[in-house]
Amino acid sequence: MKVVVCGAGIAGLTLACRLGAAGHTVVVVERSPGPRPEGYMIDFFGPGFDVADRLGLLPRVHELGYRFIEAGYHDETGRRRAGLNFERFARTLDGRMISIMRPDVELVLREALPPSVDLRYDSAVAAVDNRTNGVSVTLSDGTTLDADLLVGADGIHSTVRRLVFGDGFVRHLGFHTAAFIFTDPEVHALVGGRFCLTDTVGRQVGCYGLRDGRVAAFTVHRTENPELPADPQAAVRAAYAGMGWIVPRALAQCPPQLYYDQVAQVVMPRWHKDRVVLVGDACGAVSLLAGQGASLGMGGAFVLADHLDDLAAYEHLWRPVVEEKQQVARNGARWFLPSTTARLRARRVAMRLARLPWIDRRIAVSLVGKPTALIS
Q: Is the Cβ–Cβ distance between 333 and 263 less than 8 Å?
């Protein structure tokens, strides 16, 4: 079977790895001119961890990953007010968790691509002719690819989804987020082996040190406006102005080129139509509130690879998993970034309780949902 995969992100690369290894003809097209360096640290666990294990990629994942001591919450003066112990949290997942930069997950998958996979950067999908017996994909350079299947793995702002299914499936959750990397030896020494976040209302900045001496920053703030700013750098500096502790040093080095997006979910009544199917964030983005987008993207791609001839079966198997995680994210939105001081204090209490036996597992389930076994 000839398959065109739109999107060289985590879901698309995972699918290409499996299909290429199985002998299918695979072309991966990606609109970016090359691998994207922007992205944030993810807690990698669940079905994605299992897929990496099945594909023999865990040694490389562990090589590039990090073992943080905790996620610590600090007030405007830097005083630690609460924290989540990563080792304890990992035990609730039987130790099958590691923190890793999202671009590094993509690197692992690119390295694992079979030589037969045709990976094309700077190549956007411009038009799709979807038929019951095949699909033709016109690229931005005028090239047309004829295939048995087109897979949209092109993220929350999917072009394939728009061209084939239309608009209106993105559900804004009331937040914007950004991520960037900067160099500051003092901040790097201060955060050490921890994920340090501000213990603040309505907006939050997190920093963690990378092994090359740089510092990765992550931000999220509440906003009812889903529209993205024309100048993300200026938007970040304006949204977090006036915050204390290490935030001013991070903002001073916020670069013009950074990751910036709304926090949203994709909710669709159907993921496939004739010979086009969606996978990952393109059809079921859960948002960073659920914290498992990369893992679910890999899991969904793994399942899809086994059901190319029965797309309805793929959707029947994987949709309940995605919808459960989406609901967990919506339920936890008010605690992810508290909107009032009272909720902020309540979150501190919950984190203290998380240190108690049995309660830690219940809180873990409330944060990430039910354990998900890999479906094949």
A: no
